[in-house]
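Protein in question reproduced for absentees:

***
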Amino acid sequence: MRLPRSRAPQPTTAERVRSVLAAAHSMTVVSDGLHTEVRRLDGAGVMTRIHVHAPTPETPPPPGSERIPVRLEFTDIAPTPVRDRVRSRVTVTGLLAAPYRTSETDESTCMEFGQAVIEDADGRHFVTLEALEEVAPDPLTTCEAGMLTHLMDSHAELIPLLLRLVRAPRTAELTRAVPLAMDRYGLTLRLEYPRKHSDVRLAFPTPVTGAEQAGPQIQGLLRAARRMSHPNRLPA
């Protein structure tokens, strides 16, 4: 059972979709009745393999050149061992001039954009191509996994301290708190209970514009936590 998530400043839906696409190391391509697993995106994001463009005018294609529907599927998985590791799923649909085929060349495949959908704990949200083109991926996208695992593996003693910042009822049944996500606005912790869990966002004092600013912002959260006395803590 998942409890409602806390509300704090966070990226827009379009930013979240762009970030998932930028961080993706794999995708599933569904085209012409075939499922193709693409597992090596080399950390450069899907746009190095698929060039997305706006729909063409509504004119019938010449015989033999009909476009083929395609669906790109992405799963955003938490890098830390939280309960329910799937953070979101993103699907991008469109049209191709020919069935998708993996290739050893550096040439990208041209795809006419149809729609983008992101599904997560908050529901299902559609994003237009215009909205995607107007935003950039979150500046922490490509280094988020490393920072979260470093926090958990090397500084786990700081997580109970951060719990002082959680404005929630007493957590006598809390069994574990694990870093779930990080973006330019803050850090998200997953609070796990025996039969449920909830996510809480701890807003950075100032949104970051680069990865080098994340450390000082986390230190700002820790300084604020040390100044507080709060009952939210893990059992001994």
